[in-house]
Amino acid sequence: YPSGNLAIIVVREKKQLICIVQEDKLKNAKIQGLFKSSGRSTCYYPNGAVWINMNIQGGQYFNQAGTRVRRWTWPNSVMSSGPHVPLSPIFVSLNQNVGVRILGQDKIAVSFLAMGQQAKFNVGTKVQVSDGNRLPPPARLGKDELLLLAFRVRILRLLDRLHGCLNFPSNEQRDKIQPPSYLTTQTLKILQLCTSADISGELHSSVRTIVN
């Protein structure tokens, strides 16, 4: 950066290259972008929330509240289920000097611009998943993991309720406020996990009670 702080680092870890974008700070600089030649990449908002997340199958775009607003699949990926969704070009600015352009799986560029000079890093990769190399199904969550997820949603709901009590002392006004969409989405995902997982009816009932 013009300040002299390190902006972009490219390192080798075993057989893959990793490109790291840091914020413009001398100490305790947060990571704003992480791009791996294996096809996994993540960009972060200034507050640390995930902005863009990509893997060898496709990617997702989130707003700062954590709600997914876009998703896509790469043309050559093999999805276990669901339709293929094409990518619409994405351009984001991680900070004043660093931008990211996503046009395709092998057309992802990190650009650095400062004091009239520019540097570009091609961080895209062409990783294909064939039928013979299909990704394994996600690991099933155990009892402890499901309960932790359920309590996390419960705590977030209570905090949201407390925030509503502070802003709207009237019960009539407060009862009209709906919980944030991301909490509703997370609740549904946890209940879906319970349905797909091989768990007891007692545990399923406990999780449902916690999140509701």
UniProtKB/TrEMBL annotation:
PANTHER family: GLUTAMATE RICH 6 (PTHR23093:SF18), SIMILAR TO CHROMOSOME 3 OPEN READING FRAME 20 (PTHR23093). The gene is Erich6. InterPro entries: FAM194_C. This is ERIP6 protein. It comes from the Eukaryota. It comes from Galbula dea. The lineage of its organism: Eukaryota, Metazoa, Chordata, Craniata, Vertebrata. Pfam families: FAM194 (PF14977). Residues 1-176 form the FAM194 C-terminal domain.
